[in-house]
Amino acid sequence: MKERLEALKSDALAELAGVNDAQALGDIRVKYLGKKGALTEILRGMGALSAEERPVIGQVANDVRGAIEAVIEEKQEAFQRAETEKRLAKETIDVTLPGRRLPEGGLHPLTKVIQDLEDIFVGMGYQVAEGPEVEMDYYNFEALNLPKNHPARDMQDSFYITEDILMRTHTSPVQVRTMQAMQGESPVKVIVPGKVYRRDDDDATHSFQFHQVEGIVVGKNIRMSDLKGTLLQFVREMFGAHTEIRLRPSFFPFTEPSVEVDVTCIKCGGAGCRLCKQTGWIEILGAGMVHPNVLEMGGYDPKEYSGFAFGMGVERIAMLKYGVDDIRHFYNSDLSFLKQFARL
Ligand code: DAH
After folding, report:
1. Residue 41 belongs to what H/E stretch?
2. Handedness of CA 191, 192, 198, 203 (dihedral sign)
3. 131 burial class (0-12, 13-18, 19+ CB within 10 angstroms)?
4. What does pTM read for this prediction?
5. What separation in Å is there between the alpha carbon of 232 and the centre of ligand 1?
C-alpha cells in the first residue's frame, strides 16, 4: 500500500510539472485528492490493515497529500502572480506619450483688433455702445450736418433701402444716437465698433462691407489737446510705445476743425519705405472737434459743451498691425490665413 501511495505521489508530481494553467491544476487536484480521487481510492483499503500498520500508512498518506498540495498551491500562486502581472502590463499608461491634440480655434483678426481697441479705450474710461446697421438717412447724414443734396454725401456712396432708410455708411450716426440717449448728461464718452456698408467695388483696399470704430467725447471744456492726447495714447498701446502721431487739416461735415491723423510708419518707423510711400507717415483715422450743429442735434448746447470725435477702419488697423496686404483676406474664410492669428 505504501508503494501505491508513493507511486501516486510521483505520478501526481510528474503530472503537475507539466501543468501551466489554473484549470489543469484544478483537474489534477480532483483527480488525485478529490473525494472520488485516487488517494481516497487507495485509502479505502485501510480497513484491511493491521493496527500497527494503520498509523504508519496514515502518516504516509498525509505526507503524500501534503506534498501534492504544496506543489499545487505553489503553482497556483505562480499562476496568479503571472495573471496579475499580465493585467498590469496591459493596463499600464505611458504618461510620456503626447496627448491627442484637439483642433484649436482662434479669434478672427478683426475680432481681435476690435477687442484690443475696446480694451484700450475702456482703460481710458470709455463705454462701448452700438447702433443699428440699417439706419435712417437722418442719423447717417442729416444729424451729422450733411443735409440732403450736400456734396459731401458723395464721399460715401450708400445702399438705400427706401429713400429714408439705408445701410449705414459709417459708425458716426451712433454719435447723435448716443448723445440723444444720454439726454444732456455729461460726459459722453463712448466708442462704437460695428459694421458699415458702402457701394464700392471690392479690391485690395475696398470692401462693400467693413468695420469701423467710432469715438465721441462730449463734456465741458473738452479741447483739441484732449483729442490729441487720447489718440497718442491709443496708437502707442495699439502699435507700440515709440509711435508718434501727426494731425493734418482735413474736412468732415460733422467736425470743425477736422483732421486726418497719421502715425509713424508701422514698418520702417518713420525712415521711409514702400508702405508709407517714403513719407514715414501712415494715415489711420479721421477726427475733429464735434461740429456745433451736431452737438445741438444731440441735445447739447454748443455754448456750454464741446467735444471731439474720431472714426477709424478696423480692417485698415488690422492690415497695418499684422502686415496684411489685401482686405479680402479677412473675408475669404481661408484657414491657412486665419490660423496665423489663432494664438494672438
Ligand atoms: N465717419 C468718417 C468716415 O467714415 C470717419 C470720421 C471722421 C469719423 C472724423 C469721425 C470724425 O467721428 O470725427 O470716413
Report:
1. helix 38-43
2. positive
3. buried
4. 0.73
5. 17
